[in-house]
Amino acid sequence: MVTNISSSFNLKIKKISQKNQKNSENSINQKKDNNIINISSSSSSNNNIINHNTNIITIDDPSLQPGFINYSDIISDYKQLAFATHNIKGGFKKKKDNIITMMIEQHIDFLHVCETNERDNNFDISKSKAHIKYITPIDNEFSNTFIIINNPNETNLGGGSCIIMTERLHNHLESTKIVQQGRYITNVFNFKNKKKFHIHSIYLPDLDKHKEIHHNITKSLFELLIQQPNKINHVTLILGDFNISNLYTIKSSLKNKNIEFLKNCIRNTHRTAML
């Protein structure tokens, strides 16, 4: 499943449980003079026990429908997972505290931050400075610890990105890969029962000004999508700032479109820009 997201994605997980009620035992004391049956507590003596077998039937239970996918076993700590992306237009160091406060207030588990304007021409994702643990100054019920994964630009200021996630979600992080420094980073999360989330976080440059970079990133995206296992228990999210000027004029839904359709959209965009 491929979902194209420009602002945020909310995956709500509803736990479905069915509990069978145990047979209730009611004590009955029958009086001889009027044959009236009184229901009393189980502590009463000389009682005749009648078992009442009660079954609760859930009507239109979605778990009974064909093709139902139960996401409740993805992770027991979450009632929902929220993924979002945000272009902050530079100044990440000054805005960092406010960004994480926003994540706490909005209960965002994963945030892709675009245009941090951070630079590092000797960056290595394996080094400790690429992964920063952030402790919130105020205790809260959502998350007191966040992990920041940097992806700075190599030289230019007009780019840079990072990933901010809750520590609980970070505990399920299987891998992180920088496909293009400052522009494209992937994360894979591994949950129980072989559930996996493949996240592609992209900050595309303006197509008219950076055709080659734009082309290389989109080409890498489709190559990685084709390489990914196509399994029912895998979820793929594509999120970021794609610098599409007419994004909100697109009327047709992409819900049921496949990768070939998305490829054609990219090709047509390139042809239009080159005319």
Describe the protein in words.
The protein is of the alpha+beta class and about 280 residues long. It has one domain (about 1-15, about 70-275): Deoxyribonuclease I, Chain A. The longest helix is centred in the C-terminal third of the chain and has 17 residues, at about 210-225. Helix 3 (about 210-225) links the parallel strand 13 and strand 14. Residues about 1-65 and about 65-75 have low confidence and may be disordered. It is built from 4 helices and 14 strands. The two termini are about 35 Å apart. It has a 6-stranded mixed β-sheet with strand order 2-6-7-10-9-8. The chain is globular and about 50 Å long. Helix 3 packs antiparallel against helix 4 (about 260-275).
Structural class: alpha+beta
Main CATH class = Alpha Beta
Q: What is the third-level CATH name, the topology?
A: Deoxyribonuclease I, Chain A
Secondary-structure element pattern, one letter each: EEEEEEHEEEEHEEEHEH
InterPro entries: Endo/exonu/phosph_ase_sf
Region (Disordered): 17-40
Biased composition (Low complexity): 18-40
Protein name: DNase I-like protein
